[in-house]
Amino acid sequence: MLEEVFHELDCCITAPQGFTAGTAACGIKADHIQDLAILASDVPCVAAGTFTTSNARAAPVLLCQERLQSGKAQALIVNSGNANCATGQQGMQNAYRMTELVATHLGLDNTLILCSSTGIIGYQLPMEKLEVGVKQITLSKEGGKDFSEAIMTTDTYPKRLGLEFELDGRTIRLGGVAKGSRMIYPNMATMLSYLTTDAALECNWLQSELRAAVADSFNMISVDGDMSTNDTCILFANGLAGNVPLNASHPEVGRFQTALRYITKFLAYELARDGEDATKLMTVHIHSAYNKDDAVKAARAVTHSSTWNHALADDDPNWGRVVAALGASGCTFQQDQFDIFFGEVQVVKQGIAAPYDQQEAQAAIAGHEVIITIDLHLGHSQATAYGSVLKAGCQ
Amino acid sequence: MLEEVFHELDCCITAPQGFTAGTAACGIKADHIQDLAILASDVPCVAAGTFTTSNARAAPVLLCQERLQSGKAQALIVNSGNANCATGQQGMQNAYRMTELVATHLGLDNTLILCSSTGIIGYQLPMEKLEVGVKQITLSKEGGKDFSEAIMTTDTYPKRLGLEFELDGRTIRLGGVAKGSRMIYPNMATMLSYLTTDAALECNWLQSELRAAVADSFNMISVDGDMSTNDTCILFANGLAGNVPLNASHPEVGRFQTALRYITKFLAYELARDGEDATKLMTVHIHSAYNKDDAVKAARAVTHSSTWNHALADDDPNWGRVVAALGASGCTFQQDQFDIFFGEVQVVKQGIAAPYDQQEAQAAIAGHEVIITIDLHLGHSQATAYGSVLKAGCQ
User: What residues of chain B lie within 8 A of the CB of A54, using their CB?
Assistant: First the structure.
């Protein structure tokens, strides 16, 4: 999938020069589970973030949005087990206090510290535990793996990746981690992802690039249809690789874009794959939509459709439910023009049943990874969405 | 709930003067199950309908929308087992042919005949079976019950109601039937409802009244979150009661409005209640929303939230998930102003946890009928939504 100029690294957010991480078990979760983590750069970073569009944003999200207006950050503290959401003014004070603890512990400027929380909504953070926990954290180059595990809530495995590539005659590293939730009982449905790079970047360019990458990756996965109060994706770029800062007119910017798109899609795909009772992963490609907005609506409507999910779980190639989902999506749609393929099998041609073989259609959706391609024959836009399919009888 | 001036009737769409119905087992479904039904009035009716907003509307929906532009209709034919959707030009021809069969059989003007289909998408109707089936149908005043059963697909029981009341010195009857789908495997997710009355009505007034009644009833239930290609609600008014035709300025119009609202809400509630593996019915009241659109969005977001449904199924009063659903709904929302009640127990006050007793909160949501009240403290609009909660472990 990736050209050979990109090399995969063992791990991840501490692979780029100048980044370290560490964790602690501070007691928010029981049984000495790691529930507190810090990521830091040796030098201040250019930074950008994308966040939940919920109107009930958690305190740490509000803090990050405020501080990232400067386009700079140097460190991040994350706790799992408590979302610090619906916690009022006390919650906001606690979010600020979390960053102060890191500033004191690491000797950094408090305004350059960000924080995230993930877990149950409606409870105040146990600040006395955090006060002790932060002091126990030692940062190291090996800390990225521990970090990726400490942010998990109901994930069954950590999601992480690092890439190394040449750009501008320099060696650049880009790493990322993410946590999602299991599908059936997403006690804490929050999606968190953090990305680090030693590339030098221009801040405004980074913000738009990150937004575009998240739109095509994390925003295209369907877990349970619910949006969290805490969803967060932040990228830190400390510039230690020494390249000419990247922006849209940099001649080699495409290579960084490719790496960023690859990592965010990889992490998003892994989030969709890690579902309790998820037996299939559905990938829905929309081609030739009237515009990009329509393509996204259509792709997401198919992954979201509960009736189509039920059919897929039963290996039932009942494409009528795909049609119903497309029709309900609100995308521009011509009833006598669209085609649908299950894998290589065309089941709909110009809006009505194609002359397909039922057994072949069934075989095309019976595997663990189902690919559905829909050509709307209306324009030039496309989109891809990913969805988990839960096992039959448990939807 | 209803004043004593309204009397419930045994049944339903054939209770008003001049309406008859009948059914047949024409073989679309197996085992001689009734799968074809006709409803007719002795005289032409003022008629109005509301339909799915899907962009993939089925052929019978397109036919009804076209013919109801006249504001008149006299009869209706419905088949179950096949949705006549994604069937192209042939499907459209078949829908017209269905109405011709009725016109010939009953000696009526073909342009006054409507049709509906519900069932699987993507297959042509077996017209030879319909040709034979229509001729077997005998209409009678007792046919309303059979009609309500013949339109069922995955429903476990028929939904029907009739009311009688005085208005304008005349006895008026209003009846209704509806079919929905079971929750877990809604093979045919279509919602159909037909209403009849012998009241005289003005056509334009009826259209707006029906739209408003459907907005507050059928459009506020959450079954599986999927919109069908065939959803239909039609009201026939034949005027045989002899009252001065109803419109917005009729002095007693409120009584008819009350009856119409009551029947549509009753039928909608019954659709939500009839869920396979549905263990609870959740009613969500939104008070003091900024505007009506916000109230509807908020109420439906809570009934739709899969994470909150999971909590309810487990009798877990995890109100944070209600907050997450409200935040994600897009409704105008102040994080430090809203209150949430489970039954009589206030669990959130001004956006943070109220000092409630956990056992009392749990008891408030442990029953079969759960009432959630949310006060947004922003304006004067309200809405109520109904949702099925599936049993734990099967979501």
Answer: 324, 327-328
